[in-house]
Amino acid sequence: MELHMHSHHFTRRTPDWRAAVIGGCVAGAVFLVLELLAAWAMGQSPWGPPRMIAAIALGQGTLAQPATFDPGIVTAALVVHFVLSIVFALILVVIMAPFSFDSSVGMASLVGAVFGLAVYLVNFYVMTRWFPWFADARGWISLIAHLVFGLVTADTYLRLERREDRGKEPRRSA
Fold it and tell me: Taking the domains of the chain in order of start, what are their residue ranges?
């Protein structure tokens, strides 16, 4: 039995941008479903979280309207949400690829979860300076949704990436 130790030092390796974009879209969709289901389960309007997201682009006045379905607001929320999901996925893979954090499912999942935690902290404790309405959304549900976002992004990227060095060393599951 051969033991492969993966060194996680910096190496010049370009991420698979296609896999990153797809990973961001998949994770963004999972995140939205979790947030909407959580709002529904807690007896809140499922249109509240999309309004908060749309308000990033449309302004805080969006939040003054009732939390009902509005096609323009939902469209704005989806555009903002998926653009941010893709940007976050690109940031994650720029970290993962050069440090070989995509060497195993376990490592990718760990890095993805830590990244999701970092995104949660930035979104709900730093960005609230410019978007104060997100302070109201702090909590376990948002934290779990962000952890899942990071996990799904990293694991989707791992499954879809095309690596030039794939034939050199077999990938091991954690």
Answer: 17-160
